[in-house]
Write a structure and sequence with these properties.
Elements lengths: L5 E4 L5 E3 L5 E7 L6 E2 L18 E4 L3 E10 L16 E8 L5 E5 L14 E11 L4 E10 L1
Parallel strand pairs: 1-10
Antiparallel strand pairs: 2-3, 3-4, 3-5, 6-7, 6-9, 7-8, 9-10
InterPro entries: ChsH2_C, ChsH2_Znr, NA-bd_OB-fold, Thioester_dehydratase-like
Protein name: Benzoylsuccinyl-CoA thiolase
Length: about 150
């Protein structure tokens, strides 16, 4: 396999980087009730007590704490990309520090469930997910221990 020609997000609009290269998630916030949502969307406040129908895009916290976690021990079936050979990896549900929103994401390679505990501080990072047929390395957001 040839080297990647460039990096691009696996899913557009879910995360961005600032001028220093530090990543942040892109969420949405209801201006009417203050409820946050991820992934971002333009309308339909998720708060059942709110009738707001317009959400504003906002950067979300880069840090949070482990709310729950598990370990993926099986390669995903096609058509989902999977490294060969497949290596188990941890998945963490992280409660964002400022918003209280819980965001699920892969934990960096080399971290397994045995390395995590509820309440552990985590920070956002990015990591390669796969290289597509055009040679573009697709990256995604993820979590690492802070």
């Amino acid at each position: 396999m040839s080297a990647a020609i460039r990096q691009e997000p696996a899913v557009d609009g879910w995360f961005a980087t600032d001028d220093s290269g530090a990543p942040h998630l892109i969420g949405a916030k209801c201006p009417q009730c203050g409820t946050y949502v991820f992934p971002p969307r333009a309308n339909n406040c998720p708060n059942p007590a709110c009738d707001g129908d317009q959400l504003e895009q906002v950067p979300l916290s880069r840090r949070g704490t482990v709310w729950s976690y598990t370990e993926n021990r099986y390669a995903p079936p096609p058509p989902y990309p999977s490294p060969d050979p497949f290596e188990p990896f941890a998945v963490a549900a992280v409660q964002l520090a400022d918003e209280g929103l819980i965001v699920l994401g892969k934990v960096v390679d080399g971290t397994l469930a045995a390395d995590l505990e509820v309440g552990m501080e985590m920070e956002l990072t990015t990591m390669p997910l796969f290289t597509d047929d055009d040679g573009v390395e697709r990256i995604t957001y993820g979590w690492r221990r802070a």
